[in-house]
Amino acid sequence: RNMLCRAGQIRRCAASLSHTISKVAASRQKHTLPDLTYDYGALEPYVSAEIMQLHHSKHHATYVNNLNVTEEKYQEALAKGDVTTQVALQPALKFNGGGHINHTIFWTNLSPNGGGEPQGELMEAIKRDFGSFQKMKEKMSAVTVAVQGSGWGWLGFDKDSGRLRIAACANQDPLQGTTGLIPLLGIDVWEHAYYLQYKNVRPDYVKAIWSVVNWENVSERLQMARK
Fold first, then answer.
1. Cα–Cα–Cα angle for 218, 191, 143, rounded to 5 degrees
2. Residue ranges of the Manganese/iron superoxide dismutase C-terminal domain (predicted)?
């Protein structure tokens, strides 16, 4: 009889746990568009208010919405054990998830009080790994301008070697998820990031963006990456 009671308790416990898991999955935290800490016009004249508004409230918002829809479909496929659908959803997860990750970093990498040169540990690391701040800027600008089609230029941290590295990623491929480098500073060179203001002259946009780089944010990211 005691064993029957225990078996009944186990069944009830399992049913309760299953119900709880279902509720957690159903109430999964949806991704949201992060607020900017500055106005859309705050980065002018380097990045126009019109570009910032479209880029943040339309383009980034689309990545967030599509990521949520894709994750819901993925959860359903996971619950059904439908591996084919899980695999088919991977490109959408990578594209929209990458778009959300990249832009969330990008907004904090920029500041109306930005520009100038970094200080402290970040500056020391830049000088050690690139020779000088100017050389790092020139190399990252060249790599970023050279991105074919749409993509990003990145300053990243290589945890294994403890060194800074510059890399380019196509489309919305997230830096860490595709290269293992921890993102510190990203420059978006999708045309929606600059075309309304700079037309097809990508080098002018990349040159201008350095005037609003938030080096304090980049420094904080390096400190976190080194932990």
1. 50
2. 118-221
